[in-house]
Amino acid sequence: MAKAEIPVIVLTAGKEKSAVRNHPWIFSGAIHQVLGNPQAGDTVEVRSAHGEFLGYAAFSPTSQIRARFWTFRERTPIDRDFFAALIDKAIENRRARGFDVADPKSAFRLIHAENDGIPGCIVDKYADILSIEILAAGAEKFRKILYEILVEKVHPRGILERCDADVRLKEGLPQRKEIVYGDVPKTPVEMLENGIRFDVDVWNGHKTGYYLDQRDARFEVGKFARGKHVLNCFSYTGGFGLFALQNDAKLVTEVDVSRDALQIADSLIQKNGFDKSKTELVEADVFAYLRKCRDSRKTFDLIVLDPPKFIESKSHLEKGARGYKDINLLALKLLAPQGMLATFSCSGLMEMSLFQKIVADAALDAHRDVQIIKRFGQPADHPIKTTFPEGQYLKGLLLQAD
């Protein structure tokens, strides 16, 4: 790639430190000068204030993250071969971790954005369907090439673009949801997770259709459910509840504000052959439901708190922290003696140390003596680059109270 062919971003003196450490983002405030006229998604060369080469990146003129690095290696063409090599590597890495693209019923994350070298690109496999989120201008520019390579390497039945997330607006990108290859059914896609059958609505489900990142936690928490009354809050389609039933829970109460999600949960209970008399589905706001249980002195043996993201930006951190404190306080008050609480945060700005402190403060206010017996993070198909700590967004604690 000839240097004269592409625009150049020159960083402000002293702002090159993160790039030198291979962090993939360049914020707008770090840029001193843009040489040339790059458009959204164009590849730019990044240089320090002293002219040192730092890498090639995708330009995003409307985002606070003004550029995202493709590579830190000089004279590397950002072309079809470049992306084919990245996708080959992602496939082989997943296979080494037990996730095989050839398995017709498996479900896992094949491309995890920056952590797999393709910033802003999420590729989730549900059986023979690929559901894809494109969230950044660079991946948007190369999306057709990415889809062609995925068809060659993975041989899916169909590819669905789930490019309907609000974050695209920050990148100046339009929202859309459409089939870009093959056939994607309007009916749910059936896949297997640790022996349990799930139906995934790739068209309308959360994110790309389902929360693959909680696979390990669902399995591990389920092991503690035997003989217990389990309360699954923000249950969505009932994943934690299904694994509790698989492990002979006495009763599982699923609570979610979405009637549609609860209807899917009900169908999955039947599809997996579980006893419907051991489940109750509650359509309610979780905070209100927990307060109602507190007021009626109801208790549970195992409670799961898997809420949506409470913190969208740094300005929401304090308010989000209060939300996590309130909900954990309520749950801890509802635990029976020796009861367990599995509590999670998917807010990337909520670090594990802060999350643990919030839960500890909630336990003190609830007058419960609590032990941490397990920590949770992202599964092996959601890797985290050591140079990109922001990639670690999911964290969880399994607690046991006095």
From TrEMBL:
Species this chain originates from: Hallerella porci
Q: Which SMART domains has this protein been placed in? A: PUA
State the compartments where it is located. Cytoplasm
**Family statement drawn from the similarity comment of this UniProt entry:** Belongs to the methyltransferase superfamily. RlmI family.
**A Pfam family name for this chain?**
Methyltrans_SAM
* Name of the molecule in the record: 23S rRNA (Cytosine1962-C5)-methyltransferase
Q: What domain of life is recorded for the organism?
A: Bacteria
Question: For the PUA domain, which residue ranges apply?
Answer: 7-92
Q: Does the keyword Methyltransferase apply?
A: yes
Alphabetized UniProt keyword annotations: Cytoplasm, Methyltransferase, RNA-binding, rRNA processing, S-adenosyl-L-methionine, Transferase
Principal location class: cytoplasm
